[in-house]
Design a protein that fits this description.
Blueprint lengths: L6 E4 L9 H14 L7 H5 L6 H11 L7 H17 L1 H4 L6 H10 L3 E5 L7 H8 L7 E3 L12 H10 L6 E5 L2 H10 L3 E4 L16 E3 L14
Helix pairs in contact: 1-4
The protein binds 2-phosphoglycolic acid and magnesium ion.
Magnesium ion binds next to loops.
Protein name: Phosphoglycolate phosphatase
Pathway: Organic acid metabolism; glycolate biosynthesis; glycolate from 2-phosphoglycolate: step 1/1
Family: Belongs to the HAD-like hydrolase superfamily. CbbY/CbbZ/Gph/YieH family.
């Protein structure tokens, strides 16, 4: 069976890697530094996917902190960034099947991109830790462009760079930000059922495919395309 798209754009956290343990560690170190209680990993997981600033806002909000404005927020963010960098080795955990799925797509001539809301400065070190330095032909992080997912722009930026229309690409993600960005870009969508979604019904997102393992993306022909 052939894969019906010319490019696949992958979300990172909750789709390719199970980074929640490392991210929870970074968030908790930040909360503790600021005098708040640490949270369990399941709580922090639900805050991931909309970029690191919203992650911090949710953590401070949950802690009942008076949300610092301006400089106060920036210094808390700098603290999170320091701990986040230290946590990268623990974030570098690929889900089962990811390596083979990327390899097989590549082998079929599908162009492969990374489209994440993770701060861009952490992407290269993380890809290095995973041994994926040469895996992605295009990479867009959460602060690479003025807009991030759920805006359509990061997806369209990658498609345009490939010289492809949105319809020729597939966005593969785990959460509402990926689904909304794909809808806004009129790009076909595939979802994984194991990620960090919150209050999001996978089956009503209009996905071409919902999979429990990325190798299933190549498993069968689509119902319609
Ligand atoms: O919000 C994040 O930092 C992670 O984002 P991602 O799920 O888009 O990779
Ligand atoms: Mg994600």
């Amino acid at each position: 069976m052939t894969f019906p798209y010319r490019a696949a754009l992958f979300d990172l956290d909750g789709t390719l890697i199970d980074s929640a343990g490392g991210i929870a560690e970074a968030v908790n170190r930040t909360l503790l530094d600021l005098g708040h209680a640490a949270q369990d990993e399941a709580t922090v997981r639900a805050w991931i996917g909309d970029g690191a600033r919203l992650l911090l806002r949710r953590a401070l909000d949950h802690a009942g902190a008076i949300l610092p404005d301006g400089d106060g927020f920036e210094s808390a963010y700098a603290l999170l960034m320091r701990h986040y960098g230290d946590s990268l080795p623990r974030q570098a955990v690929a889900y089962p099947g990811v390596e083979q799925a990327l390899e097989r797509l590549h082998g079929r001539g599908v162009r492969i991109a990374l489209c994440t809301n993770k701060p861009a400065r952490f992407i290269d070190p993380l890809l290095h830790a995973l041994g994926w330095e040469a895996r992605f032909e295009a990479i867009v992080g959460g602060d690479t462009l003025p807009e991030r997912k759920p805006d359509a722009r990061p997806l369209l930026h990658i498609a345009e760079g490939f010289g492809l229309s949105a319809r020729e690409c597939l966005m593969v993600g785990d959460s509402h930000t990926d689904a909304e960005a794909a809808r806004a870009a009129t790009m076909p969508l595939a979802l994984v059922d194991y990620g960090y979604r919150r209050d999001f019904d996978l089956d009503s997102a209009g996905a071409w495919r919902v999979v429990g393992d990325l190798r299933e993306l190549l498993a069968a022909a689509p119902a319609a395309c």
